[in-house]
Each structure stands twice: as C-alpha cells, then as structure tokens.
Amino acid sequence: MTPGVTCQEQFHRRWNHLQDPHVRALAWLLDAPDLLDPLAAQWQGRIATYVDADLAPWLNALEQEPQKLQDLHDYIGSLPSTRLGLYAEKLLAFYFERRQLLVAHSVQVRASKNDTVGEFDFLLRLNGALVHWEFASKFYLLATSGASPQADDFIGRDMADSLGSKMQKLLHQQLTLSLHPAAQAHLSEPIEAAQALVKGWLFYPEEPLSLPPALGVSANACRGYWSSLSALQLDPAAMYWILPRQSWLAPAKVAPGDMLTPIDARVALSQHFANDAGPLLLATLRLEDGSGLETSRGFVVPDDWAARAAARRRLRTGAPA
One short Pfam family name for this protein (predicted)? Predict the structure, then answer.
C-alpha cells in the first residue's frame, strides 16, 4: 500500500466503480493489506498472502454480467447465519471455486461421531500443490495506551478473544489439523503447506502507534479509532453511517438517503447505548458523485468498556490488577 494513504483512500481509488455490496466486500478481502506480516520471523512462514494479477477484470465481469452476479447472491443467500466471519469465508469460497482453486471448504474432521477434532476452512490447489488455509477476518481494539502493546492488548469488541489468543489457536491448533490421524480420510495427498490468511482492522484509542516489529502486525494493516460515547467528537461538516455487521469489511459507499448528520448520528448512538448495548462501528463520510464515501471508521463503545476490557485481559492472561 502507498505510504501515507489510508485503506479507505486506496480502496476507493481501485474499486469505487463497483456498486454491488458483495462484490465490494470480496474486492476488499482479496486486495486489502494483510493484518499480519507474512515475513515476520515469529510466524515461521505460516501466514498466507494472496495476489491475483487479474482480479480487476474478474471482479468487473462478475458485477457486470447478471447471471454471474446472481450466482454470487444465491451463494451468499445459502448462509446458515449472519455471522461476519461466515459471510467473509463464504465470499472467499465463491471466489476460490470460480477460479478453480478450491478442492474443499469447511471440511469437518471427527475422531468419532461425537468427537469433532476441527475443520479445514479451505483445501486449495495452488501451483499444483494441495495446501490448507485457515481464514480469519478480525476487528481488534487496542485496550491500552502503553508504548509497547502486546498481542493480548488487542481485544475483540465483544471481548471474547484477543489477537494473541487467536494466533495461538491458529498456529498451535487449527494449522496442525492435517497432522491428526482422523484428517487423513479427507486428504487425497499430503498437505504441502498449512497457512493462515488473516484480514481485518485494528482500532486505536488515540493516534495509531508504530507497533513493535516483534508483534508481527503488518505496517499497512487497516486502521481506525475507538472512542467511548461520552468522549466521541463528531465533525459538524461530515456525514455519518452506522455500519451494519455485514458491511464491516470494505470501506463504505452510502446512498444519500442512508447518511446521518452529526446530530442524527449522536441521537442514534445515544438511543443504542441507553439499552446497555454493545459497540457500534461508525463510518465518517465525504460526499462524492452523489454517494457518501468512507474516510475513516471507529468503534463507539460504552463508557465502561475500557475498564471491562482491562479486567477481561487480566483474567485471560493472569496479569496482576
């Protein structure tokens, strides 16, 4: 990614002509910077990166040919839930299948009827070899203002996991699945490589830090902010949109009728948090050619979120209070 250019700017330059929300989300998944640095020593080559030199014409054809676009919508329509991770994984499965790279997707491995060992996210044929890819799309908030954050300081909005715990699970559990005896029944040949493809956004309470290289996070990882409701400052000259969960992946492109003034955004947020609800993702928009294009994004959280996140981190890591 060009130095000094945000993920939003980069995306709008390349993909603003795309209109369909599923195609835009797929463009982001395939073209956005990786969340983790594949070359960082601690990953030992187990972080995947993917480049498709023909991505632009392929996505253009997907959106412009009605039957292809309908195929994508039908494929997404078969989702068993609205979970964002499943949605992102399904988009990639559609792409890998149509590009004739997909060998199998979501393959459950069981040691017995009631003992599930794990699941292969993707078995792919890349450069003639069979590879196992785990996929994750993650949104983590940095829950400390220290100068040298650790992986466990990046916490999910619902506090269910952290960057540190997710990577431990990926490296030491999910990516070793092919070594389990029960997995052999699903493999026609040995796995050449097992890697994790990780996309997502990191959110900071202040200006983004220069993260220590030992953290293994990509220098180009997509970034945003987070703020408590009471500390949130809205630009009186901007427009806003509260992103639905399935719209968290790609930078937003919003119809005029869906945009919120700063006053309306503040009212909507206050009403939401009056019901003791969880964080919301808020996009700041600029008007261009009749649409609102995202310029930045941030999680708005309850006023006690930081204290609860710190307590959850201590519980997870055993750190002193």
Answer: DUF1853
Q: Mapped to the 3 state alphabet, what secondary structure does 258-295 carry?
A: HCECHHHHHHHHHHHHCCCCCCEEEEEEEEECCEEEEE
pLDDT in tens, 256-282: 999 999 999 999 999 999 988 899 999
For residues 90-109, average pLDDT: 96
| Cα gap 174→171, rounded to integer Å | 6
Residue 44 has, within 13 A of its CA and on its CB side, a CA count of 7
Q: Residues 34-48, buried b or exposed e (16+ Cβ, 10 A)?
A: bbbbbebeebeebbb
Inter-residue contact 25 to 189 (CB < 8 Å): no
Average pLDDT over the chain, rounded to whole? 92
* Dihedral sign (CA 244, 248, 250, 256): positive
Number of residues in the chain: 321
